Amino acid sequence: MQRALSRLLRSAPLRLTLLLVTLFTTVNAFTLGTAYLALKSREEAALQADLEAELGGLDLAATPAALRTLVSVRARATDPADRVLVFLGDDGRQAGNARARVSQGQVALDPLPDRPLGQAGYLTEARRLSSGWLVVAESRAPVRALGRTFAALLLLSFAPTLVLSLALGTLIARRTARRVARIERTLDALAQGDLSARTGTTDGRGDDLARISAELDRMAARQEAATDALRQVSTDIAHDLRTPLQRITVLLRALEEETPPDSPARATAERAADEADRAIEIFRALLQIARIEGGQEGAPSDTLDLAALAADMVELYEPAAESAGLRLGAALPETPVLVTGEKRLIGQAIANLIENALRHGGAGPVTVSVDAEARALSVADHGPGIPEDEREKVLQRLYRLERSRTSPGHGLGLALVAAIAQRHGARLVLEDNAPGLRVTMGFPPPN
């Protein structure tokens, strides 16, 4: 009996199982803890960003009366359990979806009748204006919910980890096959463009598979870092230069107003301001593309009618087309064409395609159509089109055809459409319309 127990304790499967139990438990606790801290920090940063954005949007009001009206309108449509908006005037009058008291920079909130506050607490910002205090508060409910989720996940993960680890002791013969499958899945994900895919190997000093896996992870990490760095450079440049350019534009517009109308300097100032506006638009588009590619824009989670959205966009652009002497038409099905997406982003993609067709499509008609069976939206023109060898290039940022360099635009319209299509898992195709260009976005089936 003692000899059998000793042999069992020296067996490789049992030792490996015990090692895996210890390793998985440690890694699980460490990973969950690290992920929780990272997500909590990100959530709090997002709440703070929302506060700053809301304050900035409300602070645009020119007068106290306008600000009070704006706060009142937004407050009526906002649940105070999620967000509190209050304007506390120096005259003691308040407008908002709660009551606020400001003392030495500290804000205290009290509920209004029939409009209870949330129980999770708030992240609060108060801005002193010339006519009073503007108070905005974001509920910390997402942070609290995140903590509860991770606590439950931490508690429930140990038991499955233990069971799975023990089960691995009886499945050791299949270990090599699983490792090979993991490498294949990683390679497939990398080939599909998912540069975050990893095999998970942290030590390449083991057998051949461990060394191959570790080298694959290092290669993928270098490629992901290079891609992220390139993307971050354009984002940082756009972010850092947009504000100075906006100030330059304001100064140039002021100079334009102060210059006599018949002076050559006025025309120069006007051209300079227009160029500054164009640069701002470029930076704004670059930042939006970066946010979409980084997953910071709205997630495609709503079911919407692609045909109805296309009809709305055609109706919106018809007056502009008519004023330019162009014809904008539509070929849309009568039945709904349902896709999963974020309405604002898909609407912007359609708008960019229509604007691009109206700008570069010549005098021929521009047609917006939706294929119900393929769940595809197309915008076609009868202009000069795009050569086949340049159709992939025009989807890159700031790339422009040689003939288009003298026309308005900044070479980001199609790049933004490509980013939106990728965000929605849609297939973007540029093809010859004989004559002209046809751009098609084919959406996957709705969830």
UniProtKB/TrEMBL annotation:
Pfam families: HATPase_c (PF02518), HisKA (PF00512). Its EC number is 2.7.13.3. CDD domains: HATPase, HisKA. The chain crosses the membrane at residues 150-173. Residues 236-447 form the Histidine kinase domain. SMART domains: HATPase_c, HisKA. Residues 174-228 form the HAMP domain. It is found in: Membrane. Keywords: Kinase, Membrane, Phosphoprotein, Transferase, Transmembrane, Transmembrane helix, Two-component regulatory system. GO terms for molecular function: kinase activity. It catalyses: ATP + protein L-histidine = ADP + protein N-phospho-L-histidine. This is histidine kinase. It comes from Litorisediminicola beolgyonensis.
